[in-house]
Design a protein that fits this description.
The two termini are 34 Å apart. The protein has a single domain, classed as Small protein B (Small Protein B, Chain: A, Beta Barrel), CATH 2.40.280.10. By secondary structure, it is α+β, with helices and mostly antiparallel strands. Helix content is 31%, strand content 36%. The strands form 2 sheets. It has a 7-stranded antiparallel sheet with strand order 1-8-9-2-7-5-4. Strands 3-6 form a two-stranded antiparallel ribbon.
Length: 152
């Protein structure tokens, strides 16, 4: 991803979930939604994806209404279709049927061609003790880096 422009990022996702696998998906948007994305008016917090038949939908992602779109504006929290290959969708459907597996968006961005893409992850929810272990490891790593920097 050399020339990508970040639109929005789900910062809590890596804290709340253990990422198993990631996929880059296109997203079906209306014109006013793309213009809102260019302004960065997107929130991925509490959003997730669900498989319905042979389609995957992004649910609960908030794209703010575009101010200059007047009556042709979009619904901020509508279901948006994610564009993946049929083989990927079948594979994901099988994996999501396992207990505790979720499909969550990590970030939304413009690719090199100017298309809106969503990086979605197959993830498993973390328990409280797993979150504490991650925080402890991160703090230990930071302390050792600071100690090495002080020795130099």
């Amino acid at each position: 991803m050399s020339e990508t422009k970040l639109i929005a990022q789900n910062k809590k996702a890596r804290h709340e979930y253990q990422v198993i696998d990631t996929y880059e998906a296109g997203i079906e948007l209306q014109g006013s939604e793309v213009k809102s994305c260019r302004q960065g008016a997107v929130n991925l917090k509490d959003s997730y994806a669900r498989v319905d038949g042979f389609e995957i939908f992004l649910i609960n992602a908030h794209i703010s209404p575009y101010a200059n779109a007047n009556r042709f504006n979009h619904e901020p929290r509508r279901r948006r279709k994610l564009l993946l290959h049929r083989a990927e969708i079948k594979k994901l459907y099988g994996k999501m049927r396992e207990r505790g597996q979720s499909f969550i968006p990590l970030k939304m961005y413009f690719n090199e061609k100017g298309k809106v893409k969503v990086l979605v992850a197959l993830a498993k929810g973390k328990k409280l003790h797993d979150k504490r272990d991650d925080i402890r490891k991160r703090d230990q790593k930071r302390e050792t880096e600071q100690a090495l920097k002080a020795q130099r």
